[in-house]
Write a sequence for this structure.
């Protein structure tokens, strides 16, 4: 993302319509846990209420159904879903972050305020009423639309899907070609197993996708962080200017300056924290659910052959990725994230 | 005589209860006590404990608040040498779930006190009031939104 684009987006932030969307657990079966934003973990039960920052995770035989004010979310086994928010169009917008697994969404009606869907490698803007998102072990994503439309964005390109259309996005790449499919024709377990097998067959290619995606998140985090510092300094300057105006022109002029200049700038600066955190958590998800799993798969594969070139080559690149993560992302994480 | 003993005992129990509640020994934190604790956190050097005044489940920004630099500092600039400490005075705490209203004085000159806060609170457990959202205004009684922290 270009800095100019970020600046332009920020200038649109007159104020943030900050509205958290509570999400009710309407069904839970098998192993299913909720981790709150404070780091507390509990078994998911019918009647639980989730809020922004909370994560629900299903186990091998776990199923969870959620209701988010007119949106029904069905999580399949081995799925990790986090409720997030980011700034969009001058307001804080809900984001459904599918780090791993399969999520089916059904909208009772479209209001124009549908949540954005993100996976490790793509985002989807929803204008449809029924769709499924599959987030694979290698970071690939499969969007399948049953009805309505969905715009999928990745790698700076987008593709619009209509009913019974699907697209696959490989990590670090633009969306592939769309194809016709019915949701019931997709066997997520097989699709995910194919992804995992392909990842292990060519770990170097998988690592390249992870590196590209991580570099993109690190760039976003660094730009938001730099902008936050820039806006903080600007805010301090404007506050000092207001003091001088009050002294020179009286309290009324000072208050006018406060309301017209200082307060909007304060809200913009605060909003940067929201997007900084969004990008930080996206990078953490990539490291944890794609990079970390690839590491474990390969470690198991080469446990008796630690000197094999494929393993040592991967390890070298993985350590470089961790080093970049520690330098650029870790300082923005808090204990509860880990 | 027995009536006088009864009154005496009641007075002792009431005094003990007051001490326990005031010291939060029962886990009870009134809206005013919460505002007082938040004021202390704002005036502390690191603000590291400020997030503990917020509701862990209902404040969306709860995790982010553990780092006060990008969250609290833009709203309440840090105190410099010679600055008066922030002073938070509760003006209305009749309905914490609708908003505890607070006047803020003090702070650095750039903060431009007085400022006015609407702190929506909800309890954790039986009576531990925590802040769910914080909205600041330059005009007393006018809170058109949005909340700066929620």
């Amino acid at each position: 993302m270009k800095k100019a684009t970020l600046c332009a987006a920020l200038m649109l932030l007159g104020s943030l319509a900050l509205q958290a969307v509570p999400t009710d657990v309407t069904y839970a079966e098998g192993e299913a846990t909720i981790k709150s934003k404070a780091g507390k973990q509990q078994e998911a039960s019918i009647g639980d209420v989730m809020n922004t920052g909370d994560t629900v995770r299903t186990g091998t035989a776990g199923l969870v159904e959620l209701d988010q004010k007119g949106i029904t979310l069905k999580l399949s086994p081995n799925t990790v879903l986090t409720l997030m928010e980011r700034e969009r169009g001058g307001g804080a917008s809900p984001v459904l972050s599918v780090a791993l697994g399969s999520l089916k969404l059904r909208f009772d009606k479209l209001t124009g305020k549908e949540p954005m869907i993100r996976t490790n490698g793509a985002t989807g803007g929803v204008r449809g009423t029924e769709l499924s998102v599959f987030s694979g072990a290698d970071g690939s994503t499969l969007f399948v639309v049953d009805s309505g439309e969905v715009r999928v964005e990745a790698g700076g390109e987008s593709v619009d899907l209509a009913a019974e259309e699907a697209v696959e996005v490989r990590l670090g790449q633009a969306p592939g070609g769309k194809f016709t499919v019915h949701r019931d024709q997709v066997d997520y377990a097989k699709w995910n197993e194919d992804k995992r097998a392909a990842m292990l067959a060519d770990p170097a290619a998988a690592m390249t996708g992870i590196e590209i995606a991580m570099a993109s998140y690190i760039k976003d985090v660094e730009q938001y962080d730099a902008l936050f510092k820039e806006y903080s300094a600007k805010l301090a300057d404007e506050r000092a200017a207001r003091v001088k105006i009050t002294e020179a022109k009286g309290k009324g002029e000072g208050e006018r300056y406060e309301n017209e200049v200082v307060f909007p700038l304060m809200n913009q600066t605060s909003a940067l924290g929201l997007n900084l955190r969004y990008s930080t958590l996206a990078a953490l998800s990539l490291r944890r659910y794609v990079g970390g799993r690839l590491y474990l798969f390969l470690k198991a594969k080469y446990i008796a052959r630690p000197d094999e070139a494929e393993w040592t080559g991967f390890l070298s690149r993985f350590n470089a990725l961790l080093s970049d993560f520690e330098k650029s992302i870790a300082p923005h994480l808090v204990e509860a994230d880990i | 005589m027995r009536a006088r003993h009864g009154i005496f005992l009641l007075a002792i129990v009431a005094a003990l209860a007051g001490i326990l509640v005031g010291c939060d020994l029962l886990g009870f934190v009134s809206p005013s006590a919460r505002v007082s604790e938040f004021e202390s956190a704002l005036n502390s050097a690191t603000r590291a404990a400020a997030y503990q005044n917020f509701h862990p489940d209902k404040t969306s920004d709860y995790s982010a608040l553990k780092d006060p630099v990008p969250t609290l500092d833009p709203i309440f600039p840090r105190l410099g040498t010679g600055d008066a400490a922030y002073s938070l005075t509760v003006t209305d705490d009749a309905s914490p779930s609708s908003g505890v209203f607070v006047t803020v004085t003090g702070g650095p000159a750039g903060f431009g006190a007085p400022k006015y806060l609407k702190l929506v609170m909800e309890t954790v457990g039986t009576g531990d009031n925590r802040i769910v959202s914080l909205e600041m205004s330059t005009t007393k009684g006018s809170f058109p939104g949005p909340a700066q922290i929620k």
Observations:
- The beta strands of chain B are 84-92, 100-107, 115-124, 128-137.
- Chain B touches chain A at residues 56-58, 60-64, 66-67, 70-71, 73-75, 77, 108-112, 133, 138, 145-150 (CB under 8 Å).
